[in-house]
Amino acid sequence: MRVAIFGTGYVGLVTGTCLAEVGHQVTCVDIDQAKVDGLNHGIIPIYEPGLEPMVKENHAAFRLAFTVDAASAIGQCPVVFIAVGTPPDEDGSADLQYVLAVARTIGRHIQVPTVVVNKSTVPVGTADKVRAVIAAELSARGVDIAFDVVSNPEFLKEGDAVADCMRPDRIVVGSANADSVALMRRLYAPFNRNHDRVVEMDVRSAELTKYAANAMLATKISFMNEIANIAERVGADVEQVRQGIGSDPRIGWHFIYPGAGYGGSCFPKDVQALARTAQQAGLEPRLLNAVEAVNDAQKGHLFELIQRHYGSDGVRGRTIAVWGLAFKPNTDDMRAASSRRLLEQLWDAGACVRAYDPEAMDEARRIFGQRGDLVFCDSAGAALDGADALAVVTEWKPFRSPDFARLREALADAVVFDGRNLYDPAEIEAAGLAYYGIGRGRSL
Ligand code: NAD
């Protein structure tokens, strides 16, 4: 099937590549000329495991094209995806300017009956807005071309995006139109062989499903962080509590890790946007507000532990090694990452940072630029050189089993602040290091 996809970010590029991988003819459109030029020369703008070879192979096989020319991309395509960003507006609601700009472009250029598929995370009612914009453009052109707008929210996880896209656990299709649903089923058939993963529903429910999923996951994290903070104050170890509750299948093992707060491009903005949706509908979203407030406080918790160790003005003049800048492992994405809060707090308190991340160094250089109180290091070991203490912010695999004797030797103050509870306190203390984790009853 011929497919056009607007947006070559995490969602658009991965979706386009996976659709090409199973044999569809995909053209990805972006307004960022440099990104498109790069992709046409095999330069992948993001880090996602497995993505680069797939992009190159499908591009070389002429199943995957990249262009800024929207008109030619839309051409005779029966299906056009919208996969552009929906960043938070000033009041936290989703900013739809990019989605609606694409809708205008689609209205200007479609030539044949088209199913417009919205993959961006958008508030309930957006499909109606997209529909109205396209209809207005068609009417301005004086043409009558049939089209439908389907909601097909994306559930991929950054860091695992290719695998999620190739083996989705569900494919939500929101539409009232049986022909559109049938087309979506044909498009996704290669991903849907083992058992039926397509969940059909109405458009508004599909739009809300995406927010409900992210809000639920964010709630689990904030809940666990609150339990961790209680554990810390009452001398319990949240890691033991986690083992104790995760074994209950009604609770489950996933997403109950306490830590330095959730970040990324989705949870923070989606929880806020859903809260705004609730408010606009006349409902005070008390739980969502609490989820956000707990997370916001949690992002400052690692710094509180550092300050607790050193005393109120004791952080000044220290050098802290920071392992992990990305908002989670296996990505270079630093949007709303907890590391950003920690670094700002350390700098405000007069500390220097020696930072290392396996994939996010270029992104960090872009965000922070050159500054005297930040040294970008080539390896985890290099970040320790000349540091007083270590703070672990992202649970990358290579950070999970360090040589504690080497840490003891390298860190002048022999102290580790473990923002992801990667280490066994007894083991690390036996190596002669002071240890602070999240909710481990030892941080008082
Ligand atoms: P992104 O910021 O990585 O990429 C968006 C891309 O759209 C950019 O390359 C930008 O240049 C391009 N763009 C903007 N306006 C355009 C236009 N008019 N025409 C063509 N291209 C245009 O965004 P993302 O992370 O891929 O997210 C896209 C959407 O998917 C968002 O709504 C997001 O909430 C949702 N989502 C993201 C994830 C994730 O893990 N990143 C997961 C599920 C859903």
Automatic annotation (TrEMBL):
It comes from the Bacteria. The active site is at 266 (nucleophile). Substrate binds at residues 155-158, 210, 255-259, 263, 328. NAD(+) binds at residues 30, 35, 86, 121, 158, 269, 335. Pathway: Nucleotide-sugar biosynthesis; UDP-alpha-D-glucuronate biosynthesis; UDP-alpha-D-glucuronate from UDP-alpha-D-glucose: step 1/1. One of its GO terms (molecular function) is NAD binding. Residues 321-425 form the UDP-glucose/GDP-mannose dehydrogenase C-terminal domain. Its EC number is 1.1.1.22. Keywords: NAD, Oxidoreductase. Pfam families: UDPG_MGDP_dh (PF00984), UDPG_MGDP_dh_C (PF03720), UDPG_MGDP_dh_N (PF03721). Signal peptide: none annotated. It is an enzyme of class 1 (oxidoreductase). GO terms for biological process: polysaccharide biosynthetic process; UDP-glucuronate biosynthetic process. Belongs to the UDP-glucose/GDP-mannose dehydrogenase family. Catalyzes the conversion of UDP-glucose into UDP-glucuronate, one of the precursors of teichuronic acid. This is UDP-glucose 6-dehydrogenase. It comes from Stenotrophomonas tumulicola. The lineage of its organism: Bacteria, Pseudomonadati, Pseudomonadota, Gammaproteobacteria, Lysobacterales.
